[in-house]
Amino acid sequence: MTAHHLILVRHAQATHDLFGVQDRDRPLTERGAQDAESLGEKLAAIGIDFSGAHLWHSTARRTTQTAQAIAGRLPSSCVVHGLDALYDLDLYGILELIRETPDAVKTLIIVGHNPAIAETCRHLASDAIDGPIARELMKGYEPGTTALFTVISDWAGLSPNTATLGTVLHP
User: Fold this and answer.
1) Alpha carbons 17 and 33: distance in angstroms, whole number
2) Helices H, strands E: what count in the chain?
């Protein structure tokens, strides 16, 4: 069985609540836009074949902007898809979404929101809590934080036993 790559991204820094602007419409700050570009560069340089990768993101403005910046650094064969449900999904909803991913998808990138993204990462890394990378992840999950996992099962078999945390990136 071929290993899969799962990359979980918290959107980059967004503006604080703005009067008259709904939460879904909050954009990235200037720093957040720069961080999203930096994150895209770092992902492109990590040595994963992103050909045919799927990049799914919440349809909130800040996650869409983060996803677009990342996708701009990946091959054009990367499938980018906005999912309304990612705005409200919790840990269990994200795990269910991932487990329903077609096995033909070898690399899946999800750009979402806290606390769900951080909780999903911590859950999947829970078997490696004593490792230095996992300890770093447990400290916090600031905007733009990205966790890369190798999954040694099909997507349906995703669990802390089948996911290995490889690295944590910060913009």
Assistant:
1) 17
2) 5, 6
Question: Is 19 contained in some domain?
Answer: no
Helices (H), the chain: 30-44, 61-71, 91-99, 116-124, 132-139
Which is higher by pLDDT, 58 or 171? Answer: 58
The model carries a pTM of 0.93
> What digits encode the pLDDT tens for the residues 109-155?
999 999 999 999 989 987 666 566 666 666 678 999 999 999 999 99
Both tokens of 100, joined, read 């329903």
Backbone angles phi, psi at 104, to 5 degrees: -65, -20
Residue 79 lies in a domain: yes
CATH number for 133: 3.40.50.1240
